[in-house]
Amino acid sequence: MTKEEALYEYLIRLGDNALILGQRLGEWCGAAHQLESDIAMTNVALDLVGQARMLLTEAGEVEGKGRSEDDLAFHRNEFEFRNNLLVEMANGDFGQTITRQFFFDCFYFHFLQALKSSKSEFLQAFAMKSIKEVTYHRELSTDFMIRLGDGTEESHEKMQDAVNLLWEYTGELFEKTEADEILIAEGIVPDLTQIKSLWEQDVMAVLEKATLLIPDNKGYMASGSRKGHHSEYLGYILAEMQYLPRMMPDAKW
Amino acid sequence: MKTATGKEEIYALLEEVKDPEIPVLSIRDLGILRDVEIAENGQVTVVITPTYSGCPAMDTIEREVKEKLEAEGLDVLVKSKISPAWTTDWMTEEGRQKLEEYGIAPPAESTADKASILGKPKVVRCPRCKSEETSLISQFGSTACKALYRCDDCLETFDYFKCI
Questions:
Q1: Which residues in chain B are contacts of A139 at CB distance < 8 A?
Q2: Nearest Cα to Cα of residue B35 among B67, B83, B106
Q3: Which of B56, B140, B164 sits opposite A132 (nearest CB)?
Q4: Is the N-terminal amide bond of B84 cis, ω within 30° of 0?
Q5: Can you tell me the distance from the alpha carbon of A179 to that of A181, in angstroms, rounded to the nearest whole number?
Q6: What does the pLDDT read at residue A92?
Q7: What is the pLDDT of residues B66-98, one digit of tens each?
Q8: How many CB atoms are closer than 10 A to CB B17?
Q9: Taking a C-beta distance cutoff of 8 angstroms, is the pair A118, A127 a contact?
Q10: Which residues from chain B sit within 8 angstroms of residue A125, using beta carbons?
Q11: Which of A49, A85, A125, A143 keeps 20 to 30 A from B38, CA to CA?
């Protein structure tokens, strides 16, 4: 694997996470329990889709085959996507969406903090820009975790169910591939093992305040997205997201 | 093709390009307009930067910059760059005043103050009655760059341009 191939894989991974999570959050538009939450979910979605556009544009340039951000977003199939399983999980109820967001935001926040010292000019600029947005996202999801976890009996139960459901999808956020090894050695990306310990400290502290427990699943963690093996959900997300550009390939906004 | 006489002429023309979401502010007031370069052949390069990554106003702003300068017979190239990342510190003093008159509370302090980045501004003044007794309703408002506040005196809700 060359350095360019490694960088392409890594950019696709980051871009797909932002794109798919943005698409998921966009599903809340007009459907949240109160206007403020509806607006918050779609604001976060907008930030993420904006980030995905930068990342996929850059990925297309690194790849050097003339693919644009739209080609990559709308004309790849499930097995070519590299987003984590966590971000494609269903919205469920609001508590489940917040729990998914909280797990991801804590990861993304610490990851971007570390990426600010990347030797890649693009990734450094990207991290400096995005961390400002993600700081607000993390604050929102953290507040809701505590408020709903340590809330009423019913809200607590729903949040605990969400943690139980999503916990097994957090492990692969930190999985490394050959691309990681190549880029870490070049000082281009941070080592995910180090991000993991920061993530754990963060998550445990908030779960404790939220009176929530991590499930005892004997350390089992789902895996697969690094190789393009996804859950059934991704196909449905892509079917909706890609419908128009595939139906009318030359359609312009 | 006409050639521009100087940068100030270009800046003056671009003063008329407003943020489509906040039409009282020019892109210069907001700090979105980063640079103007005039090449020897007269081509004008305008550099802009997005406030937020997903800011949907960028395409409109880019088009308006082009239209504005092309109407003057200039050859224009608009470039977007993300580094250094946009910050509310770049908003001009005039911009802050116009924002408040328009009914949006301007960013409360410099981002050098850590508390502002963490989304905990000290005092956000109500742009209607100028009371400093206000509370945060939601960190996310009608556009990516705004939060939603309520004045505890006049009870009106208002937008606050949050610090990033």
A1: 118-119, 139
A2: B83
A3: B164
A4: yes
A5: 5
A6: 97
A7: 999 999 999 999 999 888 899 988 988 888 999
A8: 24
A9: yes
A10: 82-85
A11: A125
State pTM to two decimals: 0.91
Query: Is pLDDT at B41 greater than 60 in this prediction?
Result: yes
The interface predicted TM-score of the complex, written ipTM, equals: 0.81
Contact present, A176 and A192 (Cβ < 8 Å): yes
Contacts of A124 in chain B (CB under 8 A): 83
Length of chain B counted residue by residue: 164
Which residues of chain B have a CB within 8 Å of the CB of A132? Answer: 85, 87, 117, 164
Q: Which of residues 46-75 of B touch A (CB under 8 A)?
A: 50, 52-56
CB contact under 8 A, A36 and B138: yes
Q: Quick one: how many helices (H) and strands (E) in chain B? A: 5, 9
Does B83 lie at the interface with A, CB-CB under 8 angstroms? Answer: yes
CB-based contact, B140 to chain A, within 8 Å: yes
Provide the pLDDT for residue B145.
85
Q: How far apart are CA A100 and CA A44, in angstroms?
A: 13
Quickly list DSSP for B105-148: EPP-S-TTSHHHHTT--S----TTT--S-EEEEES--SSTTEEE
The ranges of chain A with pLDDT < 50 are: none
Distance separating alpha carbons of residues A134 and A112, to the nearest angstrom? 9
Q: Which two tokens stand for residue A78?
A: 């499930």
Size of interface A-B (CB pairs under 8 A): 74
CB-CB contact of A149 with A155 (8 Å): yes
Assigned token pair, A135: 């700081």
Chain B residues closer than 8 Å to A51 by CB: 53-54
Substitution target in A21, A33, A43 with the highest count of B β-carbons within 10 Å is A43
pLDDT digits (tens, 9 = 90+) for A134-166: 999 999 999 999 999 999 999 999 999 999 999
